[in-house]
What we know:
Layout: H1 38-46, H2 53-62, E1 66-69, E2 72-76, E3 82-84, H3 88-98
Amino acid sequence: MDEDPSKGPEALGLETCSGDEAEVMEIDEPPASKNWREPILRWIDRGRLPSDHTEARRIARRAKSFIVIDGELYKRIPLGVLQRCIPILEGRELIRDIHAGI
């Protein structure tokens, strides 16, 4: 079955590249002080929410799937498995280590 080239990326003016020509996009690093876990830990440990009502509701809703064990934040997934929550920069370093051989 022949594909209609007018429906591909070329029809939209997009260039395609082979695997040899692939580029890596640079991603801006978040500030090191920004830790996504802090508001959830503050709510679970101390019962403190941000003054912004919308943000407070979001954190309170999300916190229901988290638990703190020995000071570490874990997320409980539907299968009952606990996943340790780590900062974004630590997660990126972990991913780099995992994919270092690729």
